Structure of Histidine biosynthesis bifunctional protein HisIE:
Amino acid sequence: MSLTQQLRFDRDGLIPAIARDAEGEVLMMAFMNAEAVDKTLATGKVHYYSRSRRKLWMKGESSGHVQRLIDIRFDCDADCLLLTVDQQGTACHTGHRTCFYRKWERGAVRVEGEKEVDATAIYARKDILDALYHVIQERRQNPTEKSYVASLFAKGLDKILGKIGEEATETAVAGKGGDPEQVVYEAADLFFHTLVLLGYYDLPPERVYDELRRRFGLSGIEEKESRSK
């Protein structure tokens, strides 16, 4: 029996599908029909059904932010899907990593990553990089004259690379100077501009985390040898 034969689609032939990443963060919710489920299983790339356009669509078909299927599950009533995916780029069309970036807090809606949110209170070590990346992507897609990030993207890749080289040099100088606070300050600048470079190529920080996980437990010598092979 195929998967679609086991599922309970609604009267419109649709079933809600929740997509999450490998770490369990919920990215988005959309609908699938039987064709979308079959297409997803056949290609390994997640397809959905658009109720407004009344057509099948592949996630990332225009943006490049595809979702590669890792695992697919359905609930006890077989009327809801849970997809575990490898999300390329961002899941939300606004440039946020997840569509669930707004938080109800003390009677007001807060957007995670924006100034009114205390990022140090909300985000863990890794998550602050994700939040900053989301803000960078939002500034890129919705540029303003006062946005430093937008100005970097407007000036192009060479400008971004130049800033990374500049900040790397300043971090090295700070390390030589022996002032721990200055090292932290310059390293933060280096991290920030590296995230801008990742944003230029639509590479979320998760891709870097995955690469570090791959290397974890390998000696530096072994890792370099694996590259040459």
